[in-house]
Amino acid sequence: MTTAAVDDVSSGERADGDGSTGLIGGSRPFAWLLVITGAAGLLASWVITIDKFKLLEDPSFTPGCSLNPVVSCGNIMKSDQASVFGFPNPMLGLVTFSMVIAIGVALLAGARYRRWYWLGLNLGSAFGAGFCMWLMYQSLYHINSLCLWCSLAWVATIVMFCYVTVHNVRHRIIKVPEGLRGALLEFHWMPPVLWIGIIGMLVLTRWWDFWIS
């Protein structure tokens, strides 16, 4: 048994790779995480897309998640930032989150992928997380409104990106110093919790006067 294999077994990690073919799978919990986060993002994208079409048909339409002056999906949908690529942003989510669900289901069925595939998924989820953070900044400090469905998509994308990265570090698809690798595998829950917690604090402080009124 190789040193890497001993390390994987001793740390309680599942051996999901096939060293002879270069194919790497994923554990069932990881596969379910992709399915669940993909489904959450797809649901958010679907609801926002439907409401966007209704708003285009009837400019006076008020989305169901427009609850008050701050939590107002309608303001977000009417903004220029809501169509960065020339079409409504959630349509991009319909495609990408569906792909994530498909990957998760394939892993549950025993699928294995090459290193470049996992790196591509990591790159795609990194782009998604970065795009969500840009949208969050625009939402809080330029549009001055918050969309609950958008927030769900942000959380789903952040969790997805963090755990795709953990998966790739675990299987040494992304190589990092062993100390950092060990810390990340042991405290894998900390990055998404801290990340989402910081966003929560930004939302809380941005409209502090409104929340306490």
From TrEMBL:
InterPro entries, per the entry: VKOR (IPR012932), VKOR_Actinobacteria (IPR041714), VKOR_sf (IPR038354)
One term of GO molecular function: quinone binding
Domain Vitamin K epoxide reductase intervals: 27-168
Record bears the keyword Transferase: no
CDD domains, alphabetized: VKOR_5
A Pfam family that the UniProt record links to this protein: VKOR
Topology relative to the membrane: Multi-pass membrane protein
Gene3D superfamilies named in the record: VKOR domain (1.20.1440.130)
Name used for this protein in its record: Vitamin K epoxide reductase family protein
